[in-house]
Specification:
The chain is of the alpha+beta class. It has two helices and seven strands. The protein has one domain: Beta Barrel (Thrombin, subunit H). The chain has a four-stranded antiparallel β-sheet, with no helix packed on it. The chain has a three-stranded antiparallel β-sheet with strand order 5-6-7, with no helix packed on it. The longest helix is centred in the N-terminal third of the chain and has 21 residues. About 10% of the residues have low confidence.
Length: about 160
Amino acid sequence: MQKRQWIWDSLTAASILWPLIASAGEITNYSPVTAQRLTNPEPGNWMLYRRTYDGQGYSPLEKVNTANVKNLVPVWTFSTGVTEGHEAPPIVNNGIMFVATPQNQIIALDAKTGDQIWRYKRQLPEDLFQLHPTSRGVGLWQDKLFLATTDDHLVAL
């Protein structure tokens, strides 16, 4: 009986996950994340929670300054479809923005256009109690993106 349940659960999971995998877009020109790049990030990248290991949260980009900030207008917006509070900052590597949402979802966006490249959502056990389903974000290393899930798993994409 347990074997039948396992097969049924596997088929159900495959039918749910296949559309996510099949619809995933390809990321081109992705630069692997190295210790060197994390220690000294390129100006346009934001690969750590506060950009640098010392947590300064400062962008070295010079196009926006005190003289022109009042002229900024939104170029694009994106709805994740998740209503719980988002606490993790977006992570950016070579023009790809990774957004971590509550409920174990990661969305890859083109940072210039806001177009969705792919979306991953981990299926959680139905009986999982989540007092606070917030994501603390993702980590990048080499060619992988890492997500710690609320059901105690580590996912590498």
